[in-house]
Design brief:
- Strands 2-3-4-1-5 form a five-stranded parallel beta sheet, sandwiched between helices.
- About 0% of the residues have low confidence.
- The chain has three domains: about 140 residues, P-loop containing nucleotide triphosphate hydrolases (Rossmann fold, 3-Layer(aba) Sandwich), CATH 3.40.50.300; about 60 residues, Helicase, Ruva Protein, domain 3; about 120 residues, Zinc Finger, Delta Prime, domain 3.
- The protein is of the alpha/beta class.
- α9 crosses α10 and α10 packs parallel to α12.
- The protein is about 60% helix and about 10% strand.
Amino acid sequence: MFYIIHGDDNYRCHQALNEIKAGLGSQDMVDVNTTLLDGRRLSIRSLTDVCSVVPFMATSRLVIIEGLLRRFQPGDRQTKANGGGEEVGQALKEWQGISEQLKVMPQTTVLVLFDADLDPKAVNQLLKSLAPMADRVFQMNEIKGKELAAWIKDYTAKNKGKISAGAVALLADYIGGDLWSLTGELNKLMTYCEGREISDSDVKEISSFAREESIFALVDAVIEGRIKDAQLMLHRMLKYGTAPQQILAMLERQLAIILRVKELNHRTQQEIRESLGLHPRYPLEKTLRQARTFTVPRLRKSFHALLDTDVAIKTGKYEDDLALDLLVIELCK
C-alpha cells in the first residue's frame, strides 16, 4: 500500500497518519514494525532496502518518509542550501521513477510519504508525479470559516463539553486554524467550566491567546497615544487574572520583536518569521504594522520605562496596579 499525506494543517495530517496506523492492528506491534526515514537525505536505494524487510510477528510493516515532498518544494531554503539547481533536478528525476520500486515492494509493506507543513499553493513536481500512483492521497489544508466553527463545536461535543456560538467565534478569531492550539485551549476551557457551557467571557478570562490579542491592542493604543484606551486594556487584563509581571514580560517580548523586525525590514515576511523563530500562527502582520510606527529611540525609551517599572514593583516603591498605570502613561507619551 502507498499513501501520501500532505498539507499545511499539521494536526489533521497527524490524524490521517494515526488513521492508517489504527488499520494495521495492535498498536504495540505497529510501533515495533514502523521505520521513520528522513526524506531530505534519503536515496531510492536506501528506501528499497528498508521496504524489502519483512514484518516481525505482524502482517504489515509501516515505512514513513518525512520531508521528501518538501525537498522538492519551490523556494525551500534548506533545499537551496544543500545544493539546489541541477542536483535537485537530478534527484527529482530519480524519485519520479519510484513507480518501478512500488511494483516490486512486498505487499506487507505500507509506505507513507508524510509532509505536514507543505504549502498548498506551491506546485510540487514530485507530488504531481506520485499522486496518481498512491492508493490514497490525504490533502489536509487549514480549515477556515464555517468549517472551522463546525470543527470546534464537534470537538467540544465529542469530549462531552458545551460551547456557545460567541465562544466559538472568539476562539476561531484568536487562534484560527491551528488545531493543536485549539485542542489545548478547548481542553483547558472544558476543565475550567466543569460541564457547563463555555461562554465568550470564559474564553476572554482563560485563553492565553486572548491575552496575546490584548497585548496587541494595548501596544496599538500605546503607539497611538490613546492613554484611556491603553489603561482600559491594562485593567481588563488584570481583571481577567493576568499577573502584573506577566503583563510586563508580554510587553517586553512584543517590543523586542518589534525592534528585531525593524532590523530585518529588508527581508520577506517568511524570512523574518524564520529568523525570529516565530510560530506560524503568530500575527506577524500586526507586528509589521506596529514596527512601521515605532521609532528606534522610542523603543529604547520604552525598554528603560519597562525596567524602571519592574524595579519599582520588586522594591515596593509602587503597588503593582499603580506602577503599570504609570508605565502606560509613560509609554503613551
